[in-house]
């Protein structure tokens, strides 16, 4: 299996997701500051992978003997939307309090979070595989695959599990402008696994959803509010509305660590705004007039009424989400 992020004696090693698919380069983060920078600059991205990276960053900080509050606040300030970041830091913070910051225990916990994430993704896959119709195309947006997690993926985990169960499916991957996670990462990952995939530009999604060939949409999530509103990569909302209009089920695959039940609705989810150059340039080449004003929100919020079901490692939640998600959040984990 592809290693997105691993703890080694040299530091935290991650595949550089900015360079894929053209180059497979691994970077080593030796300090918590290196990890914070890797999260900020998208060397590592995807909500669960960011959570694992944050936990490993905290462990590195403790190993360095750095001020614990500074370590946590530096990592927390990297990206605002994916709640897994804060979840990872919080879990490490609890262990720090319980063990007086024993570096060995902190490192073991970070490694354990990584292993759990893989097991959680496999359970999400098992829980979602039945929902994928045989003989149809699955549409996905962004990259919610092995690269976005410690391994296996959430949305792509569901697709992998459906394929393993013998379903004859193929995938349409939205390219996902402006950062091109679909073109660069999802297309690469699925091709690597021999799962049939076609790349489409984002503005083709409506056309194909209307065509009757798409059996379902499966996407990941960065944060899910108590009422089931889902923050995910910019463009997800448009896909969800088009799916509903065309009676195509729209599934969200995410771990329990992506739930933020303290937030009542998606309106309270902070949306990261990214650099204008991501919109005005493609691979460093300008595609817009100089000094053009730009908006670049990295995520949008899909209201719960467009979400057919939320697939987690503990089971599948359907509307009314408030009750269903609360039940899953308090249920014992069957994955890890
Ligand atoms: O900006 P990114 O690449 O970190 O955004 C990633 C997404 O929006 C994913 O769909 C989400 O994190 C789920 S990953 C399993």
> Which band does the percent of strand residues land in?
15-25%
Average pLDDT level: 97
Report the major sheet. 7 strands, mixed
Tally of distinct domains:
2
CATH topology tier name of the largest domain: Rossmann fold
Summed up, the helix count is 11
What series of H and E elements makes up the topology?
EEEHHHHHEHEHEHEEEHEEHEEEEEH
From the spread of the alpha carbons, the general shape counts as globular
Q: Which ligands, by name, code or SMILES, are bound?
A: 5-S-methyl-1-O-phosphono-5-thio-D-ribulose
* The CATH superfamily title of the largest domain: Translation initiation factor eif-2b, domain 2
User: Radius of gyration, rounded?
Assistant: 19 Å
Strand order of the largest sheet: 6-5-4-7-10-15-16
Write a concise synopsis of the structure shown.
The chain has 336 residues and is an alpha/beta fold. The protein is 40% helix and 18% strand. It has a 7-stranded mixed β-sheet, sandwiched between helices.
């Amino acid at each position: 299996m592809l290693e997105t992020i691993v703890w080694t004696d040299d530091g935290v090693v991650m595949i550089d997701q900015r360079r894929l698919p053209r180059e497979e380069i691994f970077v080593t983060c030796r300090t918590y500051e290196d990890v914070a920078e890797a999260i900020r600059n998208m060397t590592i991205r995807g909500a669960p992978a960011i959570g694992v990276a944050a936990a490993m960053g905290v462990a590195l900080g403790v190993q360095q003997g750095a001020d614990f509050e500074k370590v946590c606040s530096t990592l927390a300030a990297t990206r605002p939307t994916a709640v897994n970041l804060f979840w990872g830091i919080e879990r490490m913070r609890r262990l720090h309090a319980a063990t007086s910051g024993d570096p060995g225990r902190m490192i073991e916990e970070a490694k354990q979070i990584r292993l759990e994430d893989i097991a959680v993704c496999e359970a999400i896959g098992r829980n979602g595989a039945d929902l994928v119709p045989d003989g149809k195309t699955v549409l996905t947006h962004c990259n919610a695959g092995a690269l976005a997690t410690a391994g296996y993926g959430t949305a792509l985990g569901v697709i992998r599990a459906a394929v393993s169960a013998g379903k004859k499916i193929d995938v349409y991957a939205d390219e996902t402008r402006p950062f091109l996670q679909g073109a660069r990462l999802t297309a690469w990952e699925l091709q690597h696994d021999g799962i049939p995939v076609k790349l489409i530009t984002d503005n083709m999604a409506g056309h194909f959803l209307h065509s009757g060939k798409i059996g379902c949409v499966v996407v990941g999530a960065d944060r899910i509010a108590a009422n089931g509103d889902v923050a995910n990569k910019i463009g997800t909302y448009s896909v969800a509305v088009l799916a509903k209009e065309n009676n195509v089920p729209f599934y969200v695959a995410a771990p329990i660590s992506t739930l933020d039940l303290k937030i009542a609705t998606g309106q309270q989810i902070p949306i990261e705004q990214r650099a204008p150059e991501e919109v005005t340039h493609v691979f460093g080449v300008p595609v817009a007039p100089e000094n053009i004003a730009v908006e670049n929100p990295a995520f949008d919020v899909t209201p719960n009424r467009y979400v057919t079901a939320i697939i987690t490692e503990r089971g599948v939640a359907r509307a009314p989400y408030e009750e269903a998600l609360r039940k899953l959040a308090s249920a014992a984990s069957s994955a890890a």
